[in-house]
Every structure is written in structure tokens, then in C-alpha cells.
Amino acid sequence: MIEFSRDGDIWTATINRPEKANSLTHEMLVSLAGFMEDAQAARAVILTGNGKVFSAGADLDEARAGLATSTIWERLSGAIAALPGLSICALNGTLAGGAMGMGLACDMRIAVPSAKFFYPVMKLGFLPQPSDPARMVALIGPARTKLILMGGQKITAEEALMYGLVDRIVEPDALLETAHDIAALTVAAAPEIANQIKAMCAAEPLSTDDLGAARIG
User: Fold this and answer.
1) Is 156 within 8 Å of 169 (Cβ atoms)?
2) Residue among 35, 85, 82, 46 at smallest CA distance from 191
3) Burial letters for 49-85: b for 16+ Cβ neighbours within 10 Å, e otherwise?
């Protein structure tokens, strides 16, 4: 139910359970986490899905049996966030529930126009995964994060683009091509340069004193 492929230095993971809205079982999450941990050697990683929904989150039966609060979600999002190469979430449709964590952990998100975004954990009686609110706040700010997590709002692709939750809206037939084109530019660069740029983007801004010291040095 998870398909993996490699095109040179670009690795792709595809959620393939469209008959169940790509809802995620524990087995699927373990498979994805293992792939992302192995993908430390990849220059770029694309995460996408088959069908009209990227992922509805946890499989409902498994969620009731404990998957909703499993540590596997954090293992997966942590593995994605730790990738030294570029990570792109190519959202073929709606991103919902616990699946939001893997999208938030990617370096960028591109989405089809029909995509919707919602994370109804509070309504279901659960807390979000520990790292998800902080990553969402970093992208869209605290008020809009509360709108989604506490207000239970479902937002459109256009709203997500305006907020900064997604970085580009792409027609379905161009989604994977666009993701590959972006990844290819990273792969074409020297690995040490690409990896250092990613590290610089994650670093805290230098203070005025630090900048002065760097110039003197």
C-alpha cells in the first residue's frame, strides 16, 4: 500500500490505498518511516499519493485501537525533517488528520486546486502529534494554527497558499512533473552546496554581533 521508486538521486514514496482515501495503517506508517530513514542517502525525496485524496489520516479502525496516539507518527515526521536533501510533499488531494504531520515536516508542499486541509483532533478527543503545532506555527503563525487545530476549520488550497501552508498550486496532470523539476535542480547542484543551503535555511538568523564578528574574521 506504499509504493517506492528511485529515479537516480530522487526517491519517491506513494501512498496507494485510494479505495480507503489513502488512510494510514500502522504497517504503512512503519514502511514510510523506514523509507525516510533510509533516504538519508537521497538528494531529493518526493512524497505523494494515488487517487483524489493525499491521505485522510489514520485508518479509523486502527485509530480506535490506539494508532491515533502512537509514537510512529513522530518517528515518521522526524525522519522526514532530518533528511539532508530536499523533501517535497506533492499533494494530489486533501491532507487531513495525522497525515498533516508528514506534510508539515517536508521542506515544501505543492497541491492540486481541489485539495483541502483540516486536522480535527480536538473534535475527536486527541491531541495533535507533539511536533505538528510548532511546525504549523512556523509556516502560518499561531492564530491560523489555532483556526485549524482549535477552530476545526477546513481550508481550501487557495487559502493554504495565502497562509503559507502550501507553496504552489499545480494542476493534477502537472503535479509530479513539477515536483520532479524542482527536485532535479537540487540534484544538479553540488551536494555539499545544496545540503548547506538547506541547513542555512533552518538556522537561526545571525545577530548583529555575530555578523560583525564574521566580517572581522
Assistant:
1) no
2) 85
3) bbbebbbbbbbeebbeeebbebebbbbbbbbbbebbb
Cβ atoms of 111 and 166 closer than 8 Å: yes
H/E stretch holding 111? strand 108-111
Q: Exposed e or buried b for every residue in 116-139, given b needs 16+ CB within 10 A? A: bbbbebeeeeeebbebbbebbeeb
DSSP state of 130: T
Of 64-73, 86-95, 163-172, 202-211, the least confident: 202-211
Run of H or E residues at 53:
strand 53-55
pTM of this prediction?
0.91
